[in-house]
């Protein structure tokens, strides 16, 4: 018996969790236009709808490096207290409107210093904006819990400094650490000192790996650096032949290492050919702990509702599949077991049951 098709309205109401979402990749187009005008930054267009289309088209190049160049425009408006506060608050409100009950937002403080803010001031400001957004969402009856991941840029040499920042703010909303940026030529082990320090301080971290570069990047992120999750990780399929798992793929599945998969983004960077053929479905069916994410909502023109709906429409996903990746995300979230368990038990499972 075929499961009934899930319509978009139902998907929108479902409780969701997102682990891989970049602050500088999720601005509202209209906000970007206004903030750019305030700081004197020139955009490709000042029409919000046309600007949204420009970002999507520019990100559709099939090349990760070119995809990353679109961030020069969003980062340009995230150099001031005003820009950071507004963006962080709106970020939370947009998650709440999309049915997200838990989110982790990541950003690189070292890229937000051009107007004189210090690293601690950047983090304090973002946390203030997120707190304001969470308070407003709760007042509106759509509560959402948002944790922060601080990113170091893998092409630069400030990862140990950013790790210090993650430790300093771990009781103020920062829940973990990441390295981001172009993968090829910038291996995770270049930042081993930061990862060793974070392990000593019991701060969890994820690493972008297996998107632009293959199995060696995933192996190094896990077995050399000690990552608890993998950002993207689509190339783990290189270690699976006719359903048989190699040693690295077996390690990832058997140790329940979460894969932060981002279907639309992966299509844009050339890491996957289509939604129907995206590895997330095959990996889910093989028992991997896959999670579903948006990556950069502005560049991909997406939301969690859209990502879920695409998998329903093009890959045949069911309500149970959507529940599985949501529970997977919460099981692997960088918050306490009690918080994760409460969200699963009290919010997610009842929410999916009511959708049947």
Automatic annotation (TrEMBL):
It is an enzyme of class 3 (hydrolase). GO terms for cellular component: cytosol. Zn(2+) binds at residues 20, 22, 208, 295. InterPro entries: A_deaminase, A_deaminase_dom, Ado/ade_deaminase, Metal_Hydrolase. Transmembrane segments: none annotated. Keywords: Hydrolase, Metal-binding, Nucleotide metabolism, Zinc. One of its GO terms (biological process) is inosine biosynthetic process. Residues 15-347 form the Adenosine deaminase domain. This is Adenosine deaminase. The gene is add.
């Amino acid at each position: 018996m075929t499961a009934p098709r899930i319509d978009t309205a139902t998907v929108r109401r479902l409780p969701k969790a997102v682990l891989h979402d970049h602050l500088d990749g999720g601005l509202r187009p209209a906000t970007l236009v206004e903030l750019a005008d305030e700081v004197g930054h020139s955009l490709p267009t000042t029409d919000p709808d046309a600007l949204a289309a420009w970002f999507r088209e520019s990100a559709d190049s099939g090349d990760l490096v070119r995809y990353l160049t679109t961030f020069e425009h969003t980062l340009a408006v995230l150099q001031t207290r005003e820009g950071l506060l507004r963006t962080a608050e709106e970020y939370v409100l947009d998650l709440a409107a999309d049915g997200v009950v838990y989110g982790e937002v990541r950003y690189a403080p070292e890229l937000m210093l051009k107007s004189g803010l210090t690293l601690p001031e950047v983090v304090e400001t973002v946390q203030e904006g997120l707190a304001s957004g969470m308070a407003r969402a709760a007042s509106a009856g759509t509560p959402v819990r948002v944790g922060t991941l601080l990113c170091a840029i893998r092409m630069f040499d400030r990862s140990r400094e950013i790790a210090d920042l993650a430790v300093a703010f771990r009781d103020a909303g920062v829940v973990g650490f990441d390295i981001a940026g172009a993968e090829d030529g910038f291996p995770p082990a270049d930042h081993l000192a930061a990862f060793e320090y974070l392990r000593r301080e019991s701060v969890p971290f994820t690493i972008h790996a297996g998107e632009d570069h293959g199995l060696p990047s995933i192996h190094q992120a896990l077995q050399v650096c000690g990552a608890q999750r993998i950002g993207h990780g689509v190339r783990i399929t290189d270690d699976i032949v006719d359903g048989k798992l190699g040693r690295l793929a077996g390690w990832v599945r058997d140790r329940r290492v979460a894969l932060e998969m981002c279907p639309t983004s992966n299509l844009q960077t050339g890491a996957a050919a289509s939604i129907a053929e995206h590895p997330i479905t095959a990996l889910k069916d093989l028992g991997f702990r896959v999670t579903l994410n948006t990556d950069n909502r502005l560049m991909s023109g997406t939301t969690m509702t859209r990502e879920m709906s695409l998998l329903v429409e093009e890959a045949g996903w069911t309500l149970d599949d959507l529940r599985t990746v949501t529970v997977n995300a919460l099981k692997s979230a960088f918050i306490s077991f009690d918080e994760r368990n409460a969200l699963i038990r009290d919010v997610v499972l009842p929410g999916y049951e009511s959708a049947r």
